[in-house]
Amino acid sequence: MMCAPAEPRPLAQHASHHPATLGPVSLYVHVPFCVLKCAYCDFHSQPFCDVSPEEPEHFAWAVGEAARHWAALGVLDDVLSLYVGGGTPTTLGDGLTGSIADLCAIANMRPGAEITVETNPDTSSPELAARLHASGVTRFSVGVQSFDGADLRVLGRCHDAQAAERAVRELVATGARVALDLMCGVPGQSLASWQATLERAVATGAGHVSVYPLTVEEATPLAHHVATGALPEPDPDAAAEMMERADEVLADAGLARYEIASYAREGEQCVHNLGYWTGRPYIGLGPSASSMVPVAAFRAAAASESWADPSVVGVGRVIVDVPADAARVRFTHAADTVAFIRTATGAPEEVEYLTAEEALREDVVLGLRLAEGVAADLAERAGVVDALLRLEQQALVERAGGRWRLTRRGWLLGNEVFAEVW
Amino acid sequence: MSDPTHIRNFSIIAHIDHGKSTLADRILELTHTVADRDMVEQVLDSMDIERERGITIKAQAVRVLYEAADGETYQLNLIDTPGHVDFTYEVSRSLQACEGVILVVDAAQGVEAQTVANAMMAMNADLEIIPLINKIDLPAAEPERVRHEIEEGLAIPADEAVLASGKTGEGVREVLEAVIRRVPHPVGDAAAPLKALIFDSYFDAYRGVVALIRVIDGTVGANMKVRMMATDVVTDVEEVGVRRPANTPVEELTVGEVGYLITGLKDPALVKVGDTVTLARHGATEPLPGYREVKPMVYTGLYPIDGDQYPDLRDALDKLQLNDPALVYDPESSHALGFGFRVGFLGLLHMEVIKERLEREFDLDLLATAPSVEYHVYTTKGEKVIVHSPQDMPEPGHIERVEEPYLKATVLVPPDYVGQVMELAEGRRSTFKDMQYLSATTVEMHYETPLSELIMDFFDQLKSRTRGYASLDYEYIGYRPSNLVKLDILLAGKPVDALSFIVHREKAYARGKVLTEKLREIIPRQMFEVPIQAAIGGKILARETVRAKRKDVLAKCYGGDITRKRKLIEKQKKGKKRMKSVGNVDVPQDAFMAILKVDE
Fold it and tell me: Which residue of B has its CA nearest to A413?
């Protein structure tokens, strides 16, 4: 395995930079390429036909540059998970295998780290899957969306239901864990066809299912179809009913809901995503990728001489030059592939500093997405107990076993809860 | 002392947009009253809103000196009047200060409703009328057709009508010559006790109330003691002067002259348009005819969206009232909207203009409730109750009858659209009186219409159904009994005072149904079901339901989404804050507007 911890790391000499209290981090790579953009998608991605032939290679190199930059600052000393998303990473084909190997060499991956690659039925092949698995990928996340042809056409997907089913089965056959995404509330989708989609998803043997109600994002073809009346607006009540149906069908099949949109067999929860909801720091590489790190871990280091080094430039400065009351910093790179290739370690487009109190409130909001909810003492430290008591009266949250969590009603009306707490 | 034979007092009257203010600009230019470098468009319209909308709200008087073709220099007093029906009384007072008018008619549009109304007023005031066909430079100009319309429709000889263009300046000298030749010079008795007509007033922060006056008899000058006859106030004259157009003090104003009068009075209510100024001692015994109290015709509730702005709203209304005594207001409170004012206006344009000025000049965010008229309610106990707001309406069981103001509405329209006008008018409880062809292209129709129907976007409807061709004028004819009821709107079982309105019983059901449907669309889904009901007394006429919100959750929330989604939720929160919380229902401001635009 290429990610064995014994691998020598070329940048190990920078260990003096190591921020002692950072703890384990997650690493995310955004691959901004896909075969064709789907009708509902507003993520940063370019259809592969619009991409110059050398661009993927340059992109892979830039990702390596950015990773080395962070590694040099000691930020990647204990990486718990790597998630390669997009776009559709598998459009990179075999190049992807090399990139993952490079990343595992640069970052210090924890033994048994979860390494996920997003894929699509139309870019997935048994050969590529096998090679990725062999190079350390432990988990595939497949954008299936639906096993109903009509839904797939509305969503502007490049594959049909059979191709999706075949692709998922092939991925399961590699022995890696497999997650699949489904969409409900699609115009024209019936409760019966949704039920059928859920059942076929279970039958593939995938151990993880995510259920997203379709949202119409601005400036997408879907938004245009809705605006012109070519498609009806998604009905939120229908989506609500389908979300509840998903809960029942998947629970019966042994996939328990552990987050608003996430269901998994025991032990197959996504380590990487759990990090987002539990305050674990993450580093995002690539255009439009976001990172989040606690400021405290870098305070001492930033004061030390080595951090005053002018070589700590661009993106690194956002964790060095922070306002006095900042406890957490989150920053996002511009959604611009060419700019990313030019300066992989350039300053991010958007930087957000959170105070200690804001960070705690954010932890509560994100933690409440989980079935287990948040510990009562976290809520207390965040100063949101009054808000939670008000929400309890509306039957949106409940207390159990020293923790606050969403009720069944709260699952569907999460925004009411988040708005009150945030 | 000025020689009255060399004075001409005249006004320019026109339908809106026919080019009255531009013509005035050209006159000021031709007579070098305003230096070229100070020339702006619509010199006499000093408010932004007047210039933007191309309307005149305040009357103005400007003195120009004109060297005529006969080699003599004449003092011309141009009195610019508001053109809109809302200000009919002001127009009539301005006209009383004149001996003649220039009647401006657009060479393309021809005679329109306010052309007729203004011409009638000028005729009734016995003024010399000089027709002027304006905008002859337009490609669509048809001066001969318009000349014909003036003669046929208004019975005004138009063979001598001046052809002019306010844009190019053509015809301006001709019309001034016509004024000198045809408008009679003022006649008065310089030796008689002072009689001067107040035809407008405004407030100057340093000088107090400034009255615009026309001297009929006698002389007025600084340090005299004068009396306002209607308000019976005695005061000293601080200054008299003329406007060129800047205030220029003079020693005295005498027979026939037009100018301003400053007394030091600070209360605009004491200096009323139409009142007569005379001497405090040995003054005139009879005031000039025609004075009346100006009464608001339309009322609405104005509420600051942010309750903290209530004191600011009060200050702003106080300030506007200084220059606009026709604006009246009383504090009012609403369960739904908090503290505000019930404000009375001369008409819809007046209301729009005031609301816009409050928002623009005083930076207020306002919510206006449905406009209402003054209803006279006779109770079963034999009392008469004046109702300006639906909230003041007595309980249905206590009402013997309700009377509402009626208007005589005059619509001028091309014959092709007569059917559309009839259809609209019938839907608005209007009684057709008669119609006549003014010319082959213009029909004049008369209706008797309740004012309350006219203020519900009647004018907009009229314009849209006739492709903008119809024009409208109206005059008040008195109170008549009507079968009127108060329609309440209930949200979650509770009446929302700011949404109730007074409506004819036969239309109550349809209105209630349309309004509840509209509110169902406007009111966002809440955490609980919200019934919307329309009711008279306790009787429910219509019901709609806003279903409880079932799903509102951001299902995808990973690293890159967190910031974006938090912003989204913050935006939702802000939007919610802008809504009015009525009981526990969040009601967007649009809901309060919806009621203004309901056409069943």
Answer: B552
A84/B contact by beta carbon, under 8 A: no
Q: How far apart are CA B230 and CA B224, in angstroms?
A: 19
Walk me through the domains of chain B, giving residue ranges and CATH numbers. Answer: 4-182 (3.40.50.300), 195-279 (2.40.30.10), 298-368 (3.30.70.870), 376-482 (3.30.70.240), 486-597 (3.30.70.2570)
Chain B CB contacts of A212 below 8 Å: 555-556
pLDDT in tens, B246-299: 889 999 999 999 999 999 898 888 898 899 999 999 999 999 988 877 788 889
Pairwise CA distance, residues A384 & A309, whole Å: 41
Chain B neighbors of A411, CB-CB under 8 A: 553
Read off the pLDDT of residues B543-579 as tens digits, 9 standing for 90 and up.
999 999 999 988 889 988 898 888 888 888 888 877 7
| Spatial CB neighbours of A422, under 8 Å, sequence gap ≥ 6 | A361, A362, A365, B566, B569, B570
DSSP single-letter state for residue A345: T
Mutate to test the interface with A, among B546, B551, B556, B565 (most CBs of A within 10 A): B551
The span from the CA of A36 to the CA of A143, in Å, is 13
Q: Please report the ipTM that was assigned to this predicted complex.
A: 0.86
Q: Which of A246-255, A409-418, B85-94, B590-599 has the lowest mean pLDDT?
A: B590-599
Asked if the model's pLDDT at residue B398 lies above 70, the reply is yes
Gap between the Cα atoms of B254 and B219, Å rounded: 4
- Provide the CATH number for the domain formed by A12-275 in this structure: 3.20.20.70
Residue B596 above 70 pLDDT? no
Q: Is A355 on the interface with B (CB under 8 A)?
A: no
Q: Are B469 and B451 in contact (CB under 8 A)?
A: no
Cβ-based contacts under 8 A for chains A and B: 87
pLDDT at B351 over 80: yes
Is A413 close to B551, i.e. CB distance below 8 A?
yes
> What is the Cα–Cα distance from A262 to B259, expressed in whole angstroms?
82
What is the secondary structure of A221-281 as a DSSP string? Answer: HHHHHHHTTSSPPP-HHHHHHHHHHHHHHHHHTT-EEEETTEEE-TT-S-HHHHHHHTT--
d(CA A259, CA A243): 12
Q: Is B569 on the interface with A (CB under 8 A)?
A: yes
Minimal Cα–Cα distance from B584 to chain A, Å? Answer: 13
Identity of the amino acid at B220: V
Read off φ and ψ for residue A308, nearest 5 degrees.
Answer: -75, -10
Mutate to test the interface with B, among A416, A417, A420, A421 (most CBs of B within 10 A): A416
- Under the banding of pLDDT at 50, 70 and 90, the label for residue A15 is very low
The owner of tokens 């305070």 is A299
Residue B484 backbone phi and psi in degrees, to 5: -105, 145
B572 interfacial to chain A (CB closer than 8 Å) = yes
Three-state DSSP at A102 gives: helix
What average pLDDT does this structure show over A70-85? 93
d(CA B468, CA B202): 34
Chain B contacts of A289, Cβ < 8 Å?
559-560
Location of each CATH 3.20.20.70 domain in chain A = 12-275
pLDDT over threshold 50, residue B445 = yes
pLDDT of A196 reads 97
Of B551, B563, B566, the CB nearest to A332: B563
How far, in Å, are B141, B412, B422, B435, B441 from residue B415 at the CA level? 20, 9, 12, 11, 6
User: Minimum mean pLDDT among A10-24, B427-441, B448-462, B525-539: which range?
Assistant: A10-24
Query: A interface mutation test: which of B547, B557, B564, B570 has the most A CBs within 10 A?
Result: B557
Query: Does B563 sit within 8 Å of A290, measured CB to CB?
Result: yes
